[in-house]
Amino acid sequence: MNIRRGALALPILFLLLTVSSVSVFGQSDRQTVVNIPFDFIVGDKAMSAGHYILERNKRESDTVWTITTKDTGASRKVFLTIPAQSADPAQETKLVFHRYENYYFLTAFTVAGSNTGRELQMSDRERNLGEKLVAQREDVILTTSRGR
After folding, report:
1. What does the alpha-carbon distance between residue 121 and residue 105 come to, in Å, rounded to a whole number?
2. Kind of pairing, strands 76-85 and 103-110?
3. What is the pLDDT of residues 87-109, one digit of tens each?
4. 56 SS3 class
5. What is the pTM of this model?
6. Do the bridges between strand 61-69 and strand 76-85 make them parallel or antiparallel, or are there none, so unpaired?
7. Distance between CA atoms of 113 and 141, rounded to whole angstroms?
8. What 8-state DSSP symbol labels residue 123?
């Protein structure tokens, strides 16, 4: 990547979008409601823009998570994650998407109050995008302040 292209990509890389959210934290369960303002993809499943509940699938494991449409529950995706450790608990919930033109792939997230972020494995759908799109990839980060 040449310097001029890198200088242009850096501000886009850290594009921050404010998302309304409510976080509910119990002793053994975490649930976060987020508004995602664009259509996106989790693994192989396309999801429409809207309010979603992001939560662990099982209380005893941080590996399997779900994202579900808040209002109807009609759209739900279960997905595997790997930990991304942090020294300090996150002050805000953060969702990271890889953006290729109008395609947004959820790739990582951190829930406010946790010191372990979660990363998703790159899906076959994302991996099979053409070279032209891959070269134009941007990271889009949605953040929320901690809610109660």
Report:
1. 11
2. unpaired
3. 888 889 999 999 999 999 999 99
4. strand
5. 0.76
6. antiparallel
7. 18
8. P
